[in-house]
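Researcher: Quick test of sequence recovery. Tokens follow.
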């Protein structure tokens, strides 16, 4: 490639890098890795919001400006799903009915499927080499007996979406290994070590058609 590489980071507070003070999270560390690997300028744009769900991301992609930016992208990372589960958990606490998780799982599957379809469609109109990284969920609430089950279910959906351009990035393994040592104060968002784990998982995620 002779032109600049466009990297769009889509998603929730993980993409924003919330958690540790004076740290920008994984996006810019991964962007720097791309610069060093590809030996080309990488133009990075973050499209993320605290609390964003998979449904919110679908809605955001209806914006014509964002659609244009995604169509031009060579690298796309996506963090989404955690807030879907947090909302389902809140509903479960109010009703004690596990159907809230079942509904959230079905909607998550539909939203991820629709999201990738839209990206494929946009990229077909702007046919340049590209790849997508679906960043998996980790478990910030291991003390809840049902948390690992539903997080693994959501991760299975992300993993099922792999294709020639899509790779799933596993976070459960490294975050389980480090436990609370990978989380910032408050126990939900990663700390510096946690974001380094995400960057490393992205780097190790495999095939890069831009090389």
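Model:
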């Amino acid at each position: 490639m002779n032109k600049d590489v466009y990297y769009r980071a889509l998603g929730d507070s993980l993409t924003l890098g919330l958690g540790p003070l004076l740290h920008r999270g994984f996006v810019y560390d991964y962007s720097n890795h791309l610069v060093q690997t590809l030996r080309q300028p990488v133009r990075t744009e973050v499209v993320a919001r605290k609390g964003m769900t998979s449904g919110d991301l679908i809605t955001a992609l209806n914006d014509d400006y964002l659609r244009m930016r995604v169509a031009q992208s060579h690298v796309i990372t996506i963090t989404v799903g955690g807030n879907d589960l947090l909302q389902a958990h809140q509903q479960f606490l109010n009703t004690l009915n596990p159907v809230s998780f079942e509904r959230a799982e079905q909607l998550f599957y539909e939203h991820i499927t629709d999201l990738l379809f839209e990206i494929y469609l946009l990229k077909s109109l702007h046919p340049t080499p590209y790849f997508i990284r679906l960043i998996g969920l980790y478990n910030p609430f291991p003390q809840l007996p049902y948390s690992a089950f539903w997080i693994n279910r959501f991760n299975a959906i992300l993993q099922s979406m792999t294709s020639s351009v899509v790779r799933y990035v596993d976070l459960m393994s490294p975050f389980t290994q480090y436990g609370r040592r990978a989380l910032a104060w408050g126990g939900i968002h990663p700390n510096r070590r946690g974001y380094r784990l995400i960057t490393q998982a992205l780097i190790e995620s495999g095939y890069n058609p831009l090389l």
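The two ends are 8 Å apart (CA to CA).
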